[in-house]
What does this fold into?
Amino acid sequence: MDSLQKKYEIDKHTWDECAETYERQIVGGHPDILAFEEFEEDFLDRVLRYLSEKQKRPIKLMDIGCGSGRLHVRYGTKTHSIAELAQSHPLSLLKMNSPKLAYDPVIAKSLIEVWGIDFSRKMIDLAKDKLQKVGLKNHHEMALTFEQGSAFELEEQSGEILPVAICLVNSIGVMQGFEGANELFKSMRRAVESANGIAIISCYQQEYIKSYGLGQYESTIDVSGQPIWMQPDTYASSQFKQIPKQYKLAYSNDNKLIVDVFDLHDNLIKKGYVLVRDPDKTEQTIKTGDINTYSKYKSHWYSYDHIEELINDHWETQKSYHIKTRYLDIIRAEPAQMAILDFGDHLKNIFKL
It folds into this structure.
């Protein structure tokens, strides 16, 4: 088994193990992460509305690393008119409680499928359960589909539709390191090139690990494990669960983290246990962009220059955009960047950079 395949299998197992906790603590949790996801969703709404108005082909949204299906729920809901539903229908209740999910006739007229792929079977199962709970299992107007598989083996899309392939919220960072990042760029290009489609990769910047990243991983210690820069490691093994007392937000200067420690049967072992940043390991994390924990979880925050290199190596630079997203939304998207490949020049009037 080559090194990439070995990393793939290890990471797949890790994400299967943490899927439910990730759903609870990340998807429904950390304020800075939620803010960035909301920015991504608003950005994608704008792109889809623009494409629906400016070109005639039906649109297929391809969510690479789809996780628990947040975009399936979003666009399944936004393309479903509440007038067709009984007030007691779960989707009606969801729409009434979430104005951002209101019916969007512009998107609805062109978006014919949201297709997602993820290597974690547990994540796919969570996504399907989520669609069931909100009443989207049988969406007649649009296909909501999933596939368990590799982001590195995307199939070439037909020119009869406009493929928009997206990889959001730093999913590239957990795709098997530098080798995986190269394969992702090549795979997304292959998927959309012959159909003159669009590929979008959204990820955090290494330059913001100190101000954003450290606190995010410390605050979600129960998802991915104790970061190696936090000491001591007394309860860092998989035999314990450490629950942080509060979230650390951007630009926090607090080098301590207070957690309650539980065993695997939810018995309290230690209340108010204090973890402290190790200066050398913290500095190494900031310098390299490598996120490591005492579990097998690994992630990477790519520098702006590194993403620029990947664009130059694998995409056509004349058809690509590379954007520091703080210029689009300083409040919600300061620490991130977007790489956009637009073979059909569909977005040239949006990105006059």
Observations:
- The first strand starts at residue 59 and ends at 64.
- The radius of gyration is 20 Å.
- The chain has two domains: 3-205+302-342, 209-298.
